[in-house]
Write a structure and sequence with these properties.
The complex is a heterodimer of chains A (about 55) and B (about 140). Chain A is an alpha+beta fold and about 55 residues long. Chain A has one domain. Helices cover about 20% and strands about 20% of the residues of chain A. Chain A has one helix and three strands, in the order H-E-E-E. Chain A has a two-stranded antiparallel sheet. Chain A starts with 10 loop residues before the first helix and ends in a 5-residue tail after the last strand. Chain B has about 140 residues and is α+β, with helices and mostly antiparallel strands. Chain B has one domain. In chain B, a hairpin with a 7-residue loop joins strand 3 and strand 4. In chain B, helix 1 packs parallel to helix 6. Chain B is globular and about 45 Å long. The relative contact order of chain B is 0.18. Chains A and B meet through helix 1, strand 1 and strand 3 of A and helix 1, strand 1, helix 2, strand 2 and helix 3 of B. Strand 3 of chain A pairs parallel with strand 1 of chain B, so a sheet runs across the interface.
Chain lengths: ~55, ~140
């Protein structure tokens, strides 16, 4: 798509796997409702920050 | 304790990323009840928060999980420095051995930013995430509709 992003193997391969793997994973919101992670970046870029714990 | 400092950074990152047309989502690994408390408390209700108690996403991404990474001398030193600044820890919910990470993913399936945390006090730099967002800012994602 001509994006201005420099990827280098094997990072490019990993980047594909990140999106592909995460898109089907189900997480929970604070109310306990399931959210498919792939919906987070359907309409806009998403910054996903994985934290190690709450507190 | 490190999440208290990280939470302040996340609130700032959330506001800045919105300006660049992206949403920030924090993913933790405690119970939904712990997530709710964290969301309403340290995140001040500002940032979208999800939780993955089974660590499915962490495992899929191969984010580091180890005793050695979690309890290095520099981790205790950083904790001591934070406590000297008056930053105290709260009750921990989640997997203390699990390290985090940060990723930017676009609607056209690109991943322009990847970061794996090496230690508890090691976080992705918000400035670097925003720089990655600036590089893709203004792109038209409507082609997928």
């Amino acid at each position: 798509m001509g994006r201005d992003i420099d990827y280098h193997w094997p990072l490019m391969d990993f980047a594909y796997n990140v999106e592909h793997t995460l898109s089907s994973v189900q997480a929970l919101d604070p109310d306990g409702n399931q959210v498919r992670l792939g919906t987070l970046w359907e309409d806009q870029p998403a910054v996903l920050v994985f934290i190690r714990e709450f507190g | 304790m490190f999440c208290i400092e990280e939470a302040a950074q996340l609130r700032w990152l959330n506001r800045k990323s919105k300006e660049l047309g992206a949403q920030t989502v924090v993913i933790g690994n405690g119970s939904p009840a712990a997530a709710a408390a964290f969301h309403d408390g340290l995140l001040e209700g500002e940032v979208r928060l999800l939780t993955d108690p089974d660590l499915t996403s962490y495992k899929a991404l191969e984010l580091k999980r180890s005793l050695f990474a979690s309890f290095q001398p520099r981790t205790f030193l950083q904790g001591f420095k934070l406590s000297r600044r008056g930053i105290r820890g709260t009750k921990v919910e989640g997997d203390s051995l699990q390290q985090g990470g940060a990723f930017v993913i676009t609607p056209d399936h690109q991943v322009p930013y990847i970061y794996f945390c090496k230690r508890p006090e090691d976080h992705a730099r918000p400035e670097d995430i925003l720089e990655a967002l600036r590089k893709i800012q203004g792109q038209d994602w409507g082609w997928r509709a």
